[in-house]
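Let's do one together. I've listed all components of the complex below, 916 residues spread over three lines.
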Amino acid sequence: MESIKHIIQHVPIEYYIVISAIMFSIGVAGVLLKRNAIILLMCIELMLNAANLLFVAVSAYTQDPSGQVFVFFVLVVAAAEVAVGLAIIVMLYRNFDSVNINMLDKLKW
Amino acid sequence: MKFAEMIWLVPVLPLIGFLINGLGRKYISKSVAGFIGCASVFASFLLVVGMFFQYQSAEHHEAYVQTLFDWIKVGNLSIPVAFQVDALSLIMMLIVTGVGFLIHVYSVGYMHDDGGFQRFMAYLNLFIFFMLLLVSGANFPMLFIGWEGVGLCSYLLIGFWFQNQNFNAAAKKAFIVNRIGDLGFLLGMLLLFNHFGTLNFLELEKFAPFLKGDKTIMYITLLLFIGAIGKSAQIPLFVWLPDAMAGPTPVSALIHAATMVTAGVYLVVRSNFLFTASPETMMVIGTTGLLTALFAATIGIFQNDIKKILAYSTVSQLGYLFMALGIGAFTGSMFHLTTHAFFKALLFLGAGSVIHGMGGEQDIRKMGGLKKFMPVTYWVMLIATLAISGIFPFSGFFSKDEILAYAYQENKIFWVLAVLGSLMTSFYMFRMFFLTFHGTFRGTHDQEHHLHESPKVMTIPLMVLAFLSLAGGILNIPHVFGGHESLHHFLSPVYAKAAELPELHLPHSTELFLMFGVMSLIGVMIFLAYRYYVVKKNIPVEEGTELPVLQKVIYNKYYIDEIYDSSVVKTLISTSTFFFKSIENFLIDNFSVITGKVAIGAGKQLRKIQTGKIGTYVFVFVVSVVVILLVNFYS
Amino acid sequence: MTLAEITFYFLSVLTIVSAAAVVLSNKPITSILFLIFAFFCVASHFLLLSAEFLAFVQIIVYAGAIMVLFLFVVMLLNLNKNIEPYKPILFRTGAVICGGLLMLLIIGALKKTAGMDMVVVDEELLQTTIQAGKVKTLGKVLFDEYLLPFEVVSVLFLSAIVGAVILGKKDI
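Okay, and this is what the predicted structure of the assembly comes out as:
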């Protein structure tokens, strides 16, 4: 495990930035493309994870535990958000019998 | 007790009279209103007399200024409400309150049967207030307040019998024509402030030695003179004065003979140091005055309404005043102004007495032989007519001849034309006198029964004015008769700062020759009038008969009103209508309509952005983030 | 090519492929399962970076609680249908290009501010990094500097619970 733990010796931080960015963009694409509300929420989770990855990478590279503490809080918020979000989707399904977000277009001119 | 310190009280007393009579006109009786009206003016008169004697006995004759409070104080501009007591304002205040008081007393009798009596007394008091502000103000804006105020009171009083639309039109005409002059005055004031930085008389006088050759002074004085043209009825803005005879006769006496129309003369004399520094303006003033004098005199010869004759005579005499100012005879002008106030007021009040006796008739063709019915009126009118014609030893003789003497010295052409005007004046005044009081009565039977002498409350002011017209000449008896020229000495501090004013230095023999030569010519004119109208019993033709062309033109006052109407009034109305129809209706109204339509249309299109679909919103969201990042990191 | 690097590349590919599969699959259940797998990959990344505590917390909370919640909802409401409408290939291409652009931008932007590449590091710093991920250090920092956010977050949870309960009721 020692050699694995020396990863910061061999992998420059740009690589982590790249991965994080790709994951984030995939999440954004998912939010734009998908019509199912549940999948939408999941893509948002994907975006949050990308950010988390970057936080931890930077925390490792600057030896500052504050980055990991922040990930802690992001996790908490994500959990709360998913709970409430799913409750809303359940209520939506009850009233409209579908979770297609294109159906929610009454707030217009 | 120093009377000069109570100068603020002098205008305020008539103002209080106005407020009491005006606000309480439904509650107080006619006699109380009359008493209040006359008493307020009389109280002011007494104060002014006290001030006058204290001024006379003082060692140094300096102007006394009393500042009440700061009215406007903006940047460099400081206009306090301040009164100035000096020789000029004292003379004017004496005339205004003295003659004004007599006219107030007369009105109590003349307007006794009128329903709006209290309103009339209130307006008269208001007029006195504004006129006093005008003559006692210590700076140009105070003068202007009074100027505008007397214009307003003139409107109110001319249109006093407002049920008659013709009278209302005459009142409007007076106000509007006055306004045209006021614009000139205002522009002159603005230019004055721009050039000197102050509008205070005493402060402006300090600039007097440096004014020679200053071009701006010419413009300032011309603009101020335009104001004087409007207020004092010179050519071309005199058209309101004959129409103003629509008001009651005391109004004509007070406003249009004695006081308001002299405001222009006061203005010029007050700003003498400005006017004397601009010889071009003086020439303009002199020429205008002379032309007006002759023009109005020719019209007066053919008029048949007793008040119209007097109106044109007023315009003519005002012309003389301005001609005198133009040639530099400031004292002569003020002297004639004073005596003119006496005998013109007397003439108007006497004419009022005649009209009162005739039950409202004003056409002299229907009068005649009134001598035996109204003896007091007859004698006072005779005195007044002799005074205006300039017969020795009445006051008019001294004042008019002083002007003629200066004219002879300065400009012979002026002198010739002025003498011609005097001859015409005496002719038409005596024409009026003979046709009214001599011969046989030409009116209806009812009118003959109604004829009576006026009550004491009307005749006593007449007699006082007659005495003044007779004896007023002692104010300024020239050296040639052994007098001391008291008025000249009294007024000389006023134009101490002016540039060289001409001094009369004709040899005594020439002066005497001129005086009595002209007087004999006048006597000839009177004799001619007597022969024509009394001996040969000629009466002016009835209304509607065909007149020879020249006479017709002059009788219709050279069609000046018609000329003004077609050139100025119609153009104004058509331009206004054009602007109203095309620009206002078409452009401006549509403008607001179009703005509304644009807003609605834009709204209709823009609200389609709100599709309500989450997908659209998120897409826009992402695009905005991309744009912001682009701008931030790559610019 | 050390073991670390190989592991890193392998894991990264796995992460990205499973993330793409989340977006591209037709059925919701498949999306969820792929997302769980993606979480596991990210947890492995955390392990590589010596953040053990977070790796386990990630698996317990994210993969264990949150995704299970998703699965419950999908299965209980029988939402395993493909409701994606047919979108012309043009739209899909456009969306992919947009996403790609965003990715490039973010990478570029973050690269500019990076300046913290440490290819060679000495033993002492390495030890500090390793210690940084341990629970002891994290606990110290959490309760020392970040005590207030910690407490506030508990209130946040309370409000989320209350909200979820109320929203889930059949008749309010």
